[in-house]
Amino acid sequence: xxxxxxxxxxxxxxxxxxxxxxxxxxxxxxxxxxxxxxxxxxxxxxxxxxxxxxxxxxxxxxxxxxxxxxxxxxxxxxxxxxxxxxxxx
Length: 89
What we know:
This protein is of the alpha+beta class. It has one domain: ACT domain (Alpha-Beta Plaits), CATH 3.30.70.260. 37% of the residues lie in helices and 39% in strands. It is built from 3 helices and 4 strands; from the N terminus they run E-H-E-E-H-E-H. It has helices at 15-25, 57-71, 80-86, and strands at 2-10, 29-38, 41-49, 73-79. It has a 4-stranded antiparallel β-sheet with strand order 2-3-1-4. Strand 2 (29-38) and strand 3 form a beta hairpin. The protein is globular, with a radius of gyration of 13 Å.
């Protein structure tokens, strides 16, 4: 299952490390990552493959959301199919 992870918030040291550590610890492979900083605000979108993960999508969503709250950013995780439907023109 492919996932789309989005991260938005005020820039600070360690955002990418915090997000990718949770993914790596749960055997989720990063396929693509794009991030930028605009006027002090961090924005990242990450595509990942989670078929080898033992963690359910709901549990992974919660772990990432909780991590985001801890470091002061908003992290959303969605199944790629749902993301694609929501953003289809």
